[in-house]
Amino acid sequence: MMRAIDRVKSHYKRAKNQVIEVPEWGEKGEAFKVFYDPMTPKQRKRISDEYDGMDAEAFVEVLVMKAQDENGEKLFNADDKHKLLTEADGAIIGRIALLMLGPCDAKEIEKN
Asked: N or C: which end of the chain has fewer CB within 10 A?
């Protein structure tokens, strides 16, 4: 019988490489794809410790921390934070961050 911790780790492994389609950032009618792995409790704690609430800065931090391309390479770095805060649509940043912070889509996990 599989131990509980093994089930937890197995779920996390299957849940990796989730994708969010961002039509606003796409080109030629194709949505830009942001890949990410689910937030771990340690990452969630870091966000909640550093920010009083889920404000624009917290959302940008989530994006910098989690957003990847299809090869697992980070899309943004610390140098991009200011531009994400001042030269991006906050509603789109917030939408992506909230999806990253939410639970994984069980149907998508089953496909993996």
From this structure: N
For residue 107, what pLDDT is reported? Answer: 52
Give the pair of three-digit tokens for residue 85: 């805060």
Q: Which two tokens stand for residue 29?
A: 């009618």
Strands 18-27 and 30-36: antiparallel
* C-alpha–C-alpha distance, residues 48 and 58, integer Å: 8
Residue 92 near residue 22 (C-beta atoms within 8 A):
yes
Q: Which helix (H) or strand (E) holds 34?
A: strand 30-36
Nearest-angstrom CA–CA distance, 4 and 71: 30
pTM of the predicted model, to two decimals? 0.86
Name the DSSP class of 103: -
